[in-house]
Amino acid sequence: MAAKRTVYHVAPSGERASAAGVKWQVEGREGRRLLHEPHKTQKDALESARRHAREHTPAQVVVHARDGHVRTAYTYGDAPVTAPDERGRRAGERGGLY
User: Fold this and answer.
1) Residue 56 φ/ψ, nearest 5 degrees
2) What is the DSSP letter of 5?
3) What is the pLDDT of residues 31-71, one digit of tens each?
4) CA 58 – CA 5 distance, rounded (Å)
5) pLDDT at residue 67, rounded to an integer
6) For residue 10, what pLDDT is reported?
7) What is the DSSP track for 35-86?
8) How far apart are CA 77 and CA 57, in angstroms?
9) How many Cβ atoms sit within 10 Å of the Cβ of residue 48?
10) How far apart are CA 65 and CA 89, in angstroms?
11) Cα(96)–Cα(98) distance, integer angstroms
C-alpha cells in the first residue's frame, strides 16, 4: 500500500490576518503535526509549501485563488493513479465538463 499523501494548501488569509499584513498562508498536516505558516505574498507561501512537499514526499501542493477556488496543484513523489482527461473525467468514468 502506498504512503498517505501530505497535502499543503496555499490559501488567502482571513480578514484579521490581512489587517495585520499577512495575506497568504500555508496549511497542512505533517503526520500528527499541524502546519500553519503566515506569509506576506503568495509567491513566498508557494515556495514554502513546495519546500515542505519536497521534504515530505509523497505530497501535493494545492494553490487557491483569492476567491478560494483551486487554481492549480503540484504533485511530488508518486503521481495520482489516473489523471483526468481534457473533459475532466477519469478513465472509465462517464460525464465530465461537456
Assistant:
1) -125, 55
2) P
3) 788 888 999 999 999 999 999 999 988 999 999 988 888 99
4) 5
5) 86
6) 94
7) EEEEESSHHHHHHHHHHHHHHTSSEEEEEE-TTS-EEEEEEESSPPSS---T
8) 5
9) 19
10) 23
11) 6
